[in-house]
Amino acid sequence: MGEDDAPQVVVGLGNPGPQYAGNRHNIGFLVADELAARVGGKFKAHRSGAEVLEGRLAGARVVLVKPRSFMNVSGGPVAGALRFFKAPLERLSVVHDELDLPFGAVRLKLGGGENGHNGLRSISKSLGSREYHRVRFGIGRPPGRQDPADFVLRDFSAAERKELAFEVDRCADAVEALVGQGLTAAQNSFHAT
């Protein structure tokens, strides 16, 4: 199988276990679950240390990945999935929470720093590169003097939860655009809103 046959690999970041399910840090899992519903399948345990679902999205072969490890050590399962599916780095997209964007804002980029995000730091270290796509879902900054590390492990507020399904759906649309049309077209569609 050549690189042209390689799938797009979309990773949703989060922490495993029901106690984390509604946390801001788990937005990547929520978007991955929405994408799984669109693909029409269920995640299955994979030897890479992640839950994986293969299917088609926006006309492309795609592998959806949810690491089973904790966020701070998600690099190993992500690197393992890329190796297993023989996907090059440029076909990797990681969906994650972003403190520096207001709640619900979606921004896409290629490469760059990790901005203090331990999940991204672990992935960059395991891959030996920062040159992968990021789909950043804004969660806003913590109020007052609340520690960001505490803030990301809290559930979305009641007001945010009212909008959450809509925003997750829109973020999944952005991933589909990225997979189907490429970065520039997806940015043009989603950065204007």
Note down, in words, how this protein is organized.
- This protein is α/β, with parallel strands linked by helices and 193 residues long.
- The protein has a single domain, classed as Peptidyl-tRNA hydrolase (Rossmann fold, 3-Layer(aba) Sandwich).
- Helices cover 36% and strands 21% of the residues.
- It contains 6 helices and 7 strands, in the order E-H-E-E-E-H-E-E-H-E-H-H-H.
- It has helices spanning 27-39, 75-84, 118-127, 148-152, 158-181, 183-190, and strands at 8-12, 44-45, 50-57, 60-67, 92-98, 106-110, 133-138.
- It has a 7-stranded mixed β-sheet with strand order 2-3-4-1-5-7-6.
- Helix 1 packs across helix 5 (158-181) and helix 2 (75-84) packs across helix 3 (118-127).
- The N and C termini lie far apart (38 Å).
- The model has no long low-confidence stretch (mean pLDDT 94).
